[in-house]
Amino acid sequence: MKSQGKEARSGVWRDRMIPPAEVFRRAAITDDRTDMLKWLALILIALLIGLQIKLWVGDGGMRDLRAIRERVSEQQSENGKLKQRNDALHADVEDLKHGRDAVESRARSQLGLIKPGEVFYQVVTGPAPATSAASVPATSATSAADSGH
Known about the structure:
single chain; mainly alpha; 2 domains; 77% helix
């Protein structure tokens, strides 16, 4: 029985055995596929390198992105300052619309208006002291000529 099992197994193995010509043909096909895959891999690596260079250095790449982010942050800080200014102006407008005191203080400070019955005193400071002796006689000579002496 043992001999029969060995024969049966060897017969099955011989049926599955590949002839040498077929082995060489399959090896040639495998070499062609390997060469094709190597070229494909090289092309894909070159494409990847090209895309990386464009990403980091080219137009619209990381350098431009960094510059745009800086401009955005500068613009946001300027917008914050302008928003504060607008809020202050809005508060002034609301105060002028609804508050009589704000209108009165603006009229007094900007237009120089006074209420009826008030007395307005204006304090005038004297002329600045002369810085050199030459300027004082020239002034007195001019005022003497103007007075008719």
